[in-house]
Amino acid sequence: MKVRLTDFNENWAKMFEMEAQFLRTIFGDQVIRFEHFGSTAVPGLKAKPVIDMMCIVKDIKKIDSFNDKMHTLGYDVAGEWGIEGRRLFRKGGENRTHHIHFYQVDNPQIKRHLIFRDYLRTHPAEVERYSNFKEELAQCFDSTSDYSPAKKEFVKEMEKEALLWFEKKQK
């Protein structure tokens, strides 16, 4: 898929809310809550215009029973897709609009994602640094299959900073 990096868009929050409302009609009482995370959830951050949604559920195994329904509604059913305990659904095909990540309420990935989001939301200099890095990568790589792995180490280091910030804040 081609890298589509754009400036922050205020409509991303609305797109998240609309999709969350729709998904509640499908998954019902399985859903504990939805969270908007990833780059589209951070004001000022350049992003691929794909809304990352986290759906926190009671029992991850029950989500598999919705695969056929989600497929008929036009979602790609990607399963764990490299992260144990996650279920991933993608919407929009080649012009993807949403990634819906389902996690059971006790999955440690939830905390990692939300701490990183909150860190960026409260550190504008880091948002600028991350945006600049993404722009540099987008100049070097046309495909997300090259772009995404190239930013992995940078993100991992920034996540470590976010975790230290969170731990310090808790004291």
Walk me through what this model shows.
By secondary structure, this protein is α+β, with helices and mostly antiparallel strands. 49% of the residues lie in helices and 19% in strands. It has helices spanning 11-27, 60-63, 67-72, 108-121, 124-140, 144-150, 152-170; strands at 31-37, 51-57, 75-79, 86-91, 98-104. Strands 1-2-5-4-3 form a five-stranded mixed beta sheet, sandwiched between helices. Helix 4 (108-121) crosses helix 7. The longest helix is centred in the C-terminal third of the chain and has 19 residues, at 152-170. It is globular.
| Terminal CA distance | 43 Å
Largest sheet, in brief, is: 5 strands, mixed
Q: Mean pLDDT, nearest integer? A: 95
Percent of residues in β-strands:
15-25%
The low-confidence parts are: none
Cα gyration radius (Å): 16 Å
H and E order: HEEHHEEEHHHH
Structural category: alpha+beta
Q: Please, how many helices?
A: 7
Strand order across the largest sheet = 1-2-5-4-3
Q: Helix amount, in percent?
A: 40-55%
Number of strands: 5
Silhouette:
globular
Would you spell out the secondary-structure blueprint of this structure?
Elements: H1 11-27, E1 31-37, E2 51-57, H2 60-63, H3 67-72, E3 75-79, E4 86-91, E5 98-104, H4 108-121, H5 124-140, H6 144-150, H7 152-170
Parallel strand pairs: 2-5
Antiparallel strand pairs: 1-2, 3-4, 4-5
Could you write a compact summary of the structure shown?
This protein has helices spanning 11-27, 60-63, 67-72, 108-121, 124-140, 144-150, 152-170; strands spanning 31-37, 51-57, 75-79, 86-91, 98-104. The protein is of the alpha+beta class and 171 residues long.
